[in-house]
Specification:
The chain is built from 17 helices and no strands. It is an all-alpha fold and 366 residues long. The radius of gyration is 21 Å and the shape is globular.
Length: 366
């Protein structure tokens, strides 16, 4: 969940002027670091990850040149780089940078500081993206514990952590627990930010997804409609947040067997993502896989095979060849290949699925 509480999307003219002047002047002194860090956050909020990374890497150069890697601003630079990598599906890099930032903040602020909790949540998200849910759950719970007891934690960080934890529990199939956590996240977001804030919309979207998984379709549609109204008023038509809403709308249509509606919504989602994200982003791969499933249900096997191939290629690059996230895509892809009598390629995917399942079982047994 993106946290826009610390830095409003409508950044003040004065701040932007200061940032532009610093960049134009080519300032490479430590005094430029707060401006660069904040400007990188602005671009992250706008999903312009290329510019965000460029600015964060410039800040990193200053930190390394001035030997400031163990300072608070150095930690902020590492946190920025980790967050950008995470948004682009680069989990190894995300863990590297977020881990360094966490060490610095724990040393400077203490292990129970709210800013430590926020990094714990970001790091947990990286682990959950790799399918390491038990590790992620421990990090999330530690973050929640810190934020529940910290008197200064009034900036919406608890709502963000609850949102991420609830989404992960939903992914694991713990739907009752996920719904309870996400309803709490919605309440916390509305209390801190207001009923019409984008952060509240993000929590509503997560809740709608879990309600869909619980087959409470009407309730999910009502909640999603609230989220879409907020996001439509807050973001442009091509923003990734709108793609998230459209993707959920498509999933609801698919569950109701309205395949034409699902196809149209997934295609709109894919168009937004391809215009706003790097070509190999994991969300593009996920949407390709969803579109492939719609084709398969409509018995459009050639289109399904092509879409599954593109989806698997992207996801293998972003999450790794043996990530459990690949399982449903490979299983569905194998089903399409068998339907097209391509039994050899289907058997190859079946073998990979079995290998990942066995390895995941062994890891959980340790």
């Amino acid at each position: 969940m993106k946290r826009v509480s610390k830095l409003s999307r409508n950044v003040s003219v004065a701040f932007l002027a200061l940032a532009v002047c610093a960049l134009a002047a080519g300032a490479e002194e430590p005094e430029a670091l707060p401006v660069l860090n904040h400007l990188a956050l602005v671009y992250r909020e706008e999903a312009d990850y290329g510019k965000a990374r460029q600015i964060a890497e410039r800040a990193l150069g200053i930190v390394e040149a001035q030997e400031l890697t163990e300072t608070a601003e150095g930690g902020n630079v590492f946190a920025n780089l980790g967050g950008i990598a995470e948004m682009q599906g680069e989990t190894a890099a995300a863990k590297k940078w977020l881990g360094r930032a966490l060490e610095i903040r724990e040393r400077l602020l203490g292990p129970a500081h709210p800013q430590v909790a926020e990094l714990l949540s970001d790091l947990a998200l990286a682990y959950s993206m790799e399918g390491r849910f038990d590790t992620a759950r421990g990090l999330y719970r530690r973050a929640v514990s810190i934020l529940e007891t910290a008197p200064e934690a009034k900036n919406g960080a608890l709502a963000a952590v609850l949102n991420n934890l609830g989404k992960m529990e939903g992914q694991e199939g713990h739907l009752k627990e996920a719904e309870a956590i996400l309803r709490r996240s919605v309440r916390e977001s509305a209390r801190v930010f207001g009923e019409r804030h984008p952060n509240t919309a993000a929590a509503l979207g997560s809740l709608a997804e879990v309600l869909r998984l619980r087959r409470s379709y009407h309730a999910a549609a009502v909640v999603l409609h609230r989220a879409e109204e907020i996001d439509a008023a807050s973001f442009g038509a091509d923003h990734p947040r709108m793609a998230r809403d459209l993707s959920l709308e498509a999933a609801l249509a698919f569950d109701r067997k309205k395949y034409a509606d699902a196809e149209a919504a997934f295609e709109r989602t894919l168009g937004i993502l391809e215009r706003s994200l790097p070509a190999g982003h994991r969300e593009i791969g996920r949407t390709q896989a969803n579109l492939a499933l719609v084709y398969w249900r409509q018995k459009r096997l050639a289109e399904a095979e092509e879409a599954y191939g593109r989806a698997l290629g992207i996801l293998e690059q972003t999450v790794g060849m043996d990530n459990p996230e690949l399982l449903p895509v490979m299983e569905q892809y194998a089903g399409v290949l068998r339907a097209r009598q391509d039994f050899a390629r289907a058997a190859g995917l079946d073998a990979r699925v079995m290998k990942i399942r066995v390895e995941r079982t062994l890891r959980r047994a340790v």
